[in-house]
């Protein structure tokens, strides 16, 4: 089913608290910029079965064991922090934030769940879901990077503006976004904690994808520390370390094609490969890591005509 085209806004404001409009930090001055549509209509006990998931949920992986532990806690103590939903129709709701609590409540057999009921349009749904997920402590680096990229591309933010919105330095935002230039296999390795973000940051300094993958496999096989990988990458760049399974580097791209590859990678939020075979021929490859990532790329292709 095709996704709705979202209207770009610049009203991310002061973080999730400002968008949702709850919490003691929401002073009267902070509330002036909050759209009327996001004001709480009421807090109520809603049937768990009457809620459908947020279609803009950027999180793709929930650990089953952690969900079961949360479900066990809910059976004993109930849901301490209400979720947030919007009303679709009489007796029908759509989740805005709090998917782990909702999923765990279903596992626990809970029939109703406390929820803030709000009015929110599709753009606000996306903003709330992205910012809530970015603020979670247990989000993996790839999920953070994808959320950052979506806020930039779908909410029309620059990197320094995004840093201010999420309380991070621009360099931190840049480091996360650079992860999306790695091959999908390495991104999966980061996502599932096979390697750390430190390993990934070192690999980004290698431009040859085949060599990146070779070093990645070496990390897994030999359980290399981040420091050892940094030293290995430095030696390879300086020509001191001819990695045994290193493949010949492809013919260097022209300056024009290098810029095109860089621009496309930035635009799509993933490492786009441009290969030129001469005589004005070649190919462009855009990898994707999941169906969600494919839909994100397709949305960019459909909704942007500025390439």
From TrEMBL:
One annotated GO biological process: chromosome segregation
Region described as Disordered: 1-37
GO cellular component: chromosome
Biased composition (Basic residues): 1-11
GO function term, MF aspect, one: DNA binding
Domain ParB-like N-terminal: 44-134
Name of a matching Pfam family: ParB_N
Keywords (A to Z) from UniProt: Chromosome partition, DNA-binding
Family, per entry: Belongs to the ParB family.
Name this protein carries in UniProt: ParB family chromosome partitioning protein
Organism: Sediminitomix flava
């Amino acid at each position: 089913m095709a996704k709705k085209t979202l209207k770009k806004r610049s009203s991310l404001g002061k973080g999730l608290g400002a968008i949702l409009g709850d919490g003691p930090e929401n002073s009267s001055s902070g509330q002036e910029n909050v759209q009327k549509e996001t004001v709480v209509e009421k807090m109520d006990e809603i049937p768990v079965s009457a809620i459908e998931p947020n279609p803009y949920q950027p999180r793709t992986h929930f650990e089953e064991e952690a969900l079961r532990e949360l479900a066990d806690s809910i059976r004993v103590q109930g849901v301490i922090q209400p979720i947030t939903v919007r009303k679709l129709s009489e007796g029908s709701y759509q989740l805005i934030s709090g998917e782990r609590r909702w999923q765990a409540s279903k596992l626990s057999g809970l029939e109703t769940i406390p929820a803030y009921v709000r009015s929110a349009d599709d753009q606000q749904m996306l903003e709330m879901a992205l910012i809530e997920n970015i603020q979670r402590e247990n989000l993996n680096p790839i999920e953070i990077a994808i959320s950052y990229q979506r806020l930039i591309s779908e909410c029309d933010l620059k990197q320094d503006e995004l840093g201010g919105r999420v309380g991070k330095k621009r360099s931190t935002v840049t480091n996360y976004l650079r992860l999306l230039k790695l091959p999908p296999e390495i991104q999966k390795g980061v996502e599932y904690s096979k390697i750390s973000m430190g390993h990934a940051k070192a690999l980004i300094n290698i431009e040859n994808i085949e060599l990146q993958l070779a070093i990645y496999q070496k990390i897994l096989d030999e359980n290399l520390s981040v420091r050892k990988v940094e030293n290995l990458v430095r030696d390879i760049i300086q020509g001191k370390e001819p990695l045994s399974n290193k493949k010949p580097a492809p013919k260097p791209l022209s300056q024009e094609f290098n810029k095109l590859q860089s621009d496309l990678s930035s635009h799509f939020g993933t490492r786009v490969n441009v290969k030129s075979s001469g005589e004005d021929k070649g190919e462009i490859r855009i990898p994707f890591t999941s169906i969600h990532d494919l839909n994100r790329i397709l949305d960019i292709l459909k909704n942007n005509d500025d390439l």
